[in-house]
Amino acid sequence: MTTEESVKVSNDEDTLKAGIRGPQLLEDFMMREKMTHFDRERIPERVVHARGYAAHGYFQVYESQEKLTTAKFLQDPSVKTPVFLRFSQVAGSRGVNETNRDVRGFATKFYTEEGNFDLVGNNIPVFFIQDGIKFPDLIHAVKPEPHNEIPQGQTAHDTFWDFIANNQESAHMMMWIMSDRTIPRSFRMMEGFGVHTFRFVNKEGTSRFVKFHWKPKLGVHSLIWDEAQKLGGADADYHRRDLWENIEAGNYPEWELGIQVLEEEDEFNFDFDILDSTKIWPEEDVPVQIIGKMTLNKNVDNVFAETEQLALHPGNIVRGIDFTNDPLLQGRLFSYTDTQFYRVGTNFKELPINRPICPVHNNQRDGAARITIDKGQVAYHNNSLANNTPYTVPGSKGGYVTYPSAVEGIKIRATARSFMDHFSQARLFWNSMTKVEREHIIDAFSFELGKVNSISVRQQVVNMLGRISSKLAASVARNVGAEIPDVEASTVTKKSPAVSMANTIFRPDTLRVGVIIGQGFNESVTRAILNQWKAVGLQPVMIAKDLGTVTGENGEKWKVDNSFLTGSPLLYDGLYVVGGDHMGNDFIWKTKSYVVESYNHYKPIGASEEASTIIESLGIDGQPGVLIEQTSELFADEFIKAMTKQRFWARG
Q1: Which parts of the sequence bind heme (predicted)?
Q2: 554-559, Cβ contacts within 8 angstroms, sequence gap of 24 or more
Q3: Is 507 annotated as a binding residue?
Q4: Is 332 annotated as a binding residue?
Q5: Is there a smaller number of Cβ atoms within 10 Å at the N or the C end of the chain?
């Protein structure tokens, strides 16, 4: 291996650092060459996170965080800080199906009074790699294979799993990816994580380590794999449509901002390195403190001008927030600046979606697509012709001052020994899963590896799984035709309930109920039930054989939202079959197909007394989550409880 100048490369795994846990050095010409080339490999869309959607909102802190940080937007609970939040997929191009299994980007730009702060994270708290220099390799492996550009936006292929098998620091990340976290039910029902370890610095100059968490008020919920695959055909824009329609309807998504805080003296008190981005800080050991709330209340006016031209950068920070020597973060601090200059242009920070809400004063000039018309003859510092303006501001007056963390050690390319354990937290994740979640993880590994043509790569991955759990490895091995590995599995017995999606919030707000109505339906009973559901936030969607209207038994005409053809049971969180006096064979047959699909996806199903024969004919009456109307008020209440539960895994 050589550089582009044919200099032989001795180490392509580690950036050049000042000390083995120190910050990256600017003189690392090998990393800069590799990263700058990678940043320019796609035009004009993003190399990663190309498929994205976003919305505007605001953030409010609950109470002053003065003891922890001088960041002004975290001081006054009465201040609403504008935000712009972009959700995205990592692997696919702009046109990829939105329900593919993939990590989701969760990137927030805060337009604070002191400048912009970008919290550029994902819906998973860890990452594949430990050092930013390996990011081009990861993305080359996950992208469509270059000889045939197949598959699009998916990880189920040889090169990706070959990378994983040979870069086993990814083991923990793969447990998260093969869980249901990577097939979210909605953007509105995803957690967000800053991933990296940052610093908070207060007015006394005291530093503490911090990690950021976004907790959705609706809880953390997912699709199931069969549902996700089919939804890609039913509605490839499923997630963006869901976000757009709910904001337009006034169902504003909300997340609470949480922080994990560690004192400097506790840095080495754990059996993992707190700077390792492939590790979590278990919430049971370092509790998440909820400090504020973000609300999205406005859709974009123009997707290109806002969502696509948005330029995010983890290096956009404000006074009171600082970096650590996390080697993945250090690499991103270089790469994101470079890629935005290339992708959006020299003056990308002047675009409306990127510029701060406070004034900008500096000596940057000219360049492509300059928007600002600079006045005067002086564009340098120091000067006398303009009274030395713009002038610097001392830290005591609000100027940004980098925290003076100690740095020592020889210049070195190496991985710290404290980063070497790749399996303990992968096993912690496995231990924390419920029976259903474990079954889904086994199925996900089996599906993905089943698409890998190389028997050798399959076996290598199964061997890696054996280091996590013998049961997991044996189950996947049987499913993909590999040998059960004879390796020693991790002996970690600890659990972290916080990582299980079974321990989330369950509420009915904004869940969609497909209501199947036929000619001659009972208007008064149906109206009473739907009104009871709407009062708790459920969203009925009227489905009939044809679009237009359906006439009830008393002559009322109700608008139809979806026909059997334009709708799909995949698009609803539950189903209510009302039926009517005139249900023909075609109506009954199509209703049955809707019911069977919903039943197989473990969703709640209800039926009026008139439509109960359809449920009975399928032999599913009496099964968990299948309800037949007796009295309308009692039925409506029981169905609300079923919708709140969302999935009935105990069905036979």
Answers
A1: 46, 86, 135, 332, 336, 343
A2: 554/523, 554/524, 556/523, 558/517, 558/523
A3: no
A4: yes
A5: C
